[in-house]
Structure formats: C-alpha cells, structure tokens
Amino acid sequence: MNNIPVYVVDIDLKRKDEELLQIEKLIEEKQQLLLENYKNMYINSQQNAVLENIKEDYEKYYNYIIEEKNEQLKAFYILNTYVENLEKYKKYSKHNAEDMRHQQMNIINEINIIKKNLHDIISNNKK
C-alpha cells in the first residue's frame, strides 16, 4: 500500500476542503454582487425613463416659453409700428402727442425687457 501517513492525507483534504469552501463563498458573494448590480441597473433604467419624460416635458415647456416670448415681441413690434405710423401721418391731436410718445417709450421698454428675458432663458438653457 501507500506509505503516506493518514494524518497527512487528512490535512491535505482538510486544506482542499477549506479552499473549496472559500471558492464557493467567493462565488456566492459574486452572485450577490451581480444580483445587486442588476437590481440597481433596473431601478436606474426606470428612473432614467422617468427623467427622460421629465426632460421631454421641460423641453416642451421651454419651447412654449420661447414661442410665447417671440409672439410678445411680434405684438409689441406691431404696436410700435402703429404708433410710428400715427406720428408719421399725424393722425392724432396735440394732446395725444405726448401720451403717444409716452406709450411708445413703454412699448420700447417692454420690447427690451422681453428681449432680455428671452436672451436669459436661452442663455440659461445652454449652461
């Protein structure tokens, strides 16, 4: 028979068993890590879908605001042109002349305010 003492074989088997147990433990830990990563990925993908919807809503609202500001600008430009034409063709009384100039200054101020707001909105969105 084999001349290896029994206690040496037992020690070798015990060490191999310990190594196998350690490997099994590592495999189990890796599986748990993979499961956690999968759960996190799943949760993140759901959150990203929600965030994507929020982003789309924000873009729609942003575009709506830009469109509204442009419409306001058009309206004030039309008003300003109307007042300029009144002044040009003298279709007002002397009493109304001062009021008309005052209104035109208000219109021009509103145009500048809207332009600034529009610029601020567009600039802040690019950051």
Keywords summarizing the entry:
rod-shaped, 127 residues
Question: What is the fold's blueprint, element by element?
Answer:
Elements: H1 6-89, H2 94-126
Describe the structure.
By secondary structure, this protein is mainly α. It has one domain. It is built from two helices and no strands. The longest helix is centred in the middle third of the chain and has 84 residues. The termini are far apart.
Gist of the model:
The chain is mainly alpha-helical and about 130 residues long. It has one domain (about 5-125). The protein contains two helices and no strands.
Domain module count: 1
Profile the largest sheet.
none
Q: How many β strands by DSSP?
A: 0
Helical run tally: 2
Span between termini: 82 Å
- Contiguous uncertain segments of 5+ residues: none
Mean pLDDT: 80
Question: What structural category do the secondary elements indicate?
Answer: mainly alpha
Order of helices and strands: HH
